[in-house]
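Handout, section B. The chain below has 308 residues.
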Amino acid sequence: MELIRGLHNLKNQTGCALTIGNFDGVHAGHQEIIKKLVSTAKNLNVPSLVVSFSVTPESFFGRPKARLSSFRDKHLYLKSLGVDKHLLIRFNKSFSQISAHSFIEDVLVKKIKAKYCYVGDDFRFGKDRLGDCNMLQEHSIDHGFTVEIVDGVGIDNQRVSSSAIRKLLSSGDFQTAEKLLGRPFAISGRVAHGDKQGRTIGFPTANISIRRKLSPVLGVFSVLIRINNITYKGVCNVGKRPTLGGLKVLLEVFIFDFNQEIYGSRVTVFFKQKCREETKFNSLEELKNQIEKDVKNSKQYFKDASFD
């Protein structure tokens, strides 16, 4: 799949089938749209194009949300679904001022050269979000492209959305979140050197760089961690480590029965159960005692759940 950074790098376009959105998490609802997109593009003999944003509109307007997936993971999810091109647009002041009419005429028609466009039923676009699905369909007739509106996907009487998944993850309901995502919730990253304070209390951890200011999960969790295609069990902490005076959100995993050097390795952490909220303890001894309980409870969880 070709990654195109910016409209100015979109060259030699002769037509495409496209969809537009943040696609955070590439959840089950997104997947329905993208499957339709890929199929239509093949039938029309044009490339399939997904348009997403390097800075989301919410972040630009000061309403950032915890991301369900890193950009790398989102890109790989789109690739796995058969998308041909991924156009990444930086949402900035200039882009935010484009009117709904200009977005259709200058962006979709002249630059992207849309032939077929899939959008969700809640799609809005243009300055002040004045453009909607009806407007897009009306103008598509004059400009010679087709718009298909895809209704939201419901699972177990719940509409699939990134916001709904964030709430489920925050509450520790990973089973329902997995249904809406279409896969287990996971965070990927490279193992980095930390301050190694876990070793001083008998619990050395793998420190995974998550590069996000807001995390959809905070607390202590029972997790599976995949390293070089081998899956291990462990306990994970996502938070600022208040007992140790931490200032930024870190992801640390104590891996059961593991003693290997994995610095620099890319790993994936699958969240299975929330054990508790992150707590500030009065001493390292209290922290050590609690971690011992977390490890014991997590091992029992994995035993009861019959994880291989």
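Note. The chain is about 35% helix and 30% strand. Compare this with the example in section A.
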